[in-house]
Amino acid sequence: MADTADPADRPAVPPVPAPDEEVAPPAPDDSEAAGPPDAEQDAPAPDLGTDPASERRKEQEERAEDDRGYDDLRRVHQLVNNNFYGVVDASGAAFGFGTLSSPGLAPGTIEPEERDRALRFYVPPRPCFDEALGHLNEAALVVLTGPDNCGRGAGSLALLRQVLGEAAKPRSLSPANALAELAASQDLKPGQGYVILDYVGELRPESVQAYEIGRLSKELRRKGSYLVITAGDTARRRLALRDHCVAWQAPDPVELFDHCRGKLPDVRLDPDTERELLERVGEQRRPADVVAAALALSEEGPTTALDTLRDRHRELVRQWFAERPPADDLLALAALAFLEGIPERTFEKECAALVAHVRDWERSGETPVAEPDGSAGAPLTAAVAGQSRARWRARAVGLVTTEHRPAPSRDAGRSERRLVFTSPRVRELVIAELHDLYGYELWYPLRRWLGELALLGDLETRTEVARGVALLARYALVEVDENLLKVWSEGITSQRVTAALTLGFMCDVEHLAPQALNIVQSWLDNSGPGRAVTAAMALTGRLGSLYRLQTLNWLWFLTHRGERVAFSARRSLVLLLQTAEHDPERVLFTLRFVRTVIAGTAPGTRERSIALRTAVQLLEAARIEACEPVTAALLRTVPHSARHLGALWADVLHSSNRSRAVGALCRTLVQLRDDPSVTGAVRELGEAMRDAMTAQQWAALCRHLSIALNHPDYAVPGTHQLAQVLVGSLRGRAPAASRRSLASLISTPPFPSARGGRSK
């Protein structure tokens, strides 16, 4: 039976005859037998006056636009992998996949060792710790509210350790709608600790009422389980949670510092140094900064500890703004805050564009850019004309420098000068000062300029815009969401990719990761196909690595929507697997999820057809860093992946996607043919496939594989021998004669190398 799946979704593969009908009855075709996609809001009601040809052209244009967006994402992810797993260069990383996060940020079980590392220097803040412990003992539920970075997360783990003991393994839940799901769940485990970090509220506030919270508290008490939620101060205004809130505070910084010193090797200090050190410690408001100073004192001495506490970069930035910089210097630094590290020639062009936006704003009759004290500054007449590259030496001393960096992609061998901040922290501090000191007169033209860059900028420029906007979200989340992300999320491809990258960068800050997740969820909730596609794109980055199960569930849901959204969801699932290549745990998690979904669908249903179509795209995927099958890389580097891949291949081989599955299997064998270390993995792959097939189906696969391997693309020395390892993997399931007859189907070709065969 010919494979009738959408040809745009698959590469060309050698045709493989279908097996006999009685050997492996095909599943309904993905695109036709399964019926049309759900209408929902993605597919408007048919208009009798609509030109079918025009509709087809529109669909093709949308598909091409989405393809370009995923190509951009793939390039950014490739840059991340190359930098993190090759030469470590944080400046080129887009999502920071390798960054360590605090325990509980990613949903899942928190191991005691992980918890104890987080609480190594913990000091319970009084009296709020005792008050929270009382709430927890009484209602089995408490909400820790307070400013970010005050130690709420560590406090939640310390409270659960106090009530459940040292051996307990708390379970972290997703911050998006987790409370509603938990309140309605019947699966609360006895004696279990639960934590929801940085709770942002439910997407539908009415879904969690005071009655439901009371019922949840009663069920927790009945089972001897406990729930700790951390949230911002706004949680205290939610009626459903108001009675369970405790205002959290950071511990006394000097007390925490002394506690840390007691656990670290002693460092002798002269009285003056110790007095200054304690004065600086007393000014700190973040426990993490106090711990960092104590570690610096122990490992590098008092000078480094004082430098850590003085925060030289903050002093430099504040001093620069206190001198009321002229408008041209101000705009140049503001532009650099959103475009750090791009080629200098490109930066100068975009900086001039920002000045033009400000001039247009002033000519409209509105107030010009204001000085920090609110007084009007001088007009921007010839602001750019007086700027020279040499002026940066005096314009932002100590804040900005120049470096020669290679291009991130095809021109990697050629470097050019780029303007960069002297420290990544300086960039964040500059954006913070811009937000604190300047108002609408600066930010209105600046937002228009950012919108233009998201629309027209190249990928490198848009990536830096996303990085800067994510930094701005630390101080103006609502403004970023309403004025930038919402607009970009339903714009053209360049804007949607910029929005997706921004959400990925936001996850580098722990308290913003739940907010990014909530934004994505809002785009999935009846917000139209454009935003749904943007949400699918955003889930391929840091969000997908943090919130694995929720990401996979959402993307699987999107595969059942209109064809444009479903196509994007499948591409996102493929990209998730490609970017997980260096993370074995995430690879196995993704493959297990797909296997479980397929197993839960009934033969002949639309749901099974969609699941199989998605599975075959995963098996056909190429590595993100090279033109070779990702399955080959997984078999080579990820233990136990063969078992899951074998089960997926067996499922797809039973469907109308058979020819694509055989082609993907052949390409994998070709890629692995010269690597003796993968023989065991290939044998395990064959065993997994054989376990899921009948003898007739297995014989049919051997016959089709033999035919396909004679194609010039696959008739490469060594491939047939590896195929014999695959089909010989019966482990006593059939008599020896049967094994010989099956292996003989994969015969060695008459010529050592078929003409035109590729060496992969």
Low-confidence stretches: 1-46, 82-100, 370-385, 730-760
Indicate the multimeric state. Answer: single chain
**What is the molecular shape?**
globular
In helices, the fraction of residues equals 55-70%
Strand portion, in percent?
Answer: 5-15%
Mean pLDDT: 81
Distance between the termini: 30 Å
Helix segment count?
33
Number of strands: 8
Strand order in the sheet with the most strands = 1-3-4-5-2-6
Structural class, please? mainly alpha
Please sum up the structure shown.
By secondary structure, this protein is mainly alpha-helical.
Explain the overall architecture:
Residues 1-46, 82-100, 370-385 and 730-760 have low confidence and may be disordered. Strand 7 (400-406) and strand 8 (415-421) form a beta hairpin. This protein is globular. It is built from 33 helices and eight strands. With 760 residues, the chain is mainly α. The strands form two sheets. It has a six-stranded mixed sheet with strand order 1-3-4-5-2-6, with helices on both faces. Helix 19 crosses helix 21 (529-538) and helix 30 crosses helix 32 (719-727).
